[in-house]
Amino acid sequence: QVQLVESGGGLVQAGGSLRLSCAASGRTFSMYTMGWFRQAPGKEREFVAAISCCGGSTSYYADSVKDRFTISRDNAKNTMYLKMNSLKPEETAVYYCAAKRGPTYHRGSYSPEYDYWGQGTQVTVSS
């Protein structure tokens, strides 16, 4: 069992930056693929970014965020991060942390792959 807790959400102006954190329980954090998803009101949940497990550090991004967001992980702290730059109002959403046992075979983008989900943290980007 893995518990995931997101933090770092809040209100920022368009063009601003924010860093989200996801703290995970357990002793096998490094063996999980980790990902970020977001869900805006009235829309389906969408993939944002993922990072590989098991000694690797490969990052995957949705095309819409590729040049502005950076995903990272600190296995010693059981924590994953998402640095978001140049935020846009349309990126207002609840951001969710997710964990998958073992490697991803879909560049981390397929939500049914994931075994555990956090409760989400609200990000609001004002115009």
Please mark out the parts with pLDDT under 50 across 5 or more consecutive residues, or reply none. Answer: none
Structural class, judged by helices and strands?
A: mainly beta
Number of helical runs?
0
Query: Beta-sheet strand percentage?
Result: over 45%
Question: How are helices and strands ordered from N to C?
Answer: EEEEEEEEEEE
Biggest sheet record: 7 strands, mixed
Roughly how many Å is the radius of gyration? 13 Å
Based on DSSP secondary structure assignment, what is the total number of beta strands? 11
Compute the average pLDDT.
96
How much helix, percentage-wise, in residues?
under 10%
Shape: globular
Between the first and last Cα atoms, what is the distance in angstroms?
40 Å
Quick rundown:
The chain has strands spanning 4-7, 10-13, 18-24, 32-39, 46-51, 59-61, 69-74, 79-84, 93-101, 116-117, 121-126. The protein is mainly β and 127 residues long. The relative contact order is 0.32.
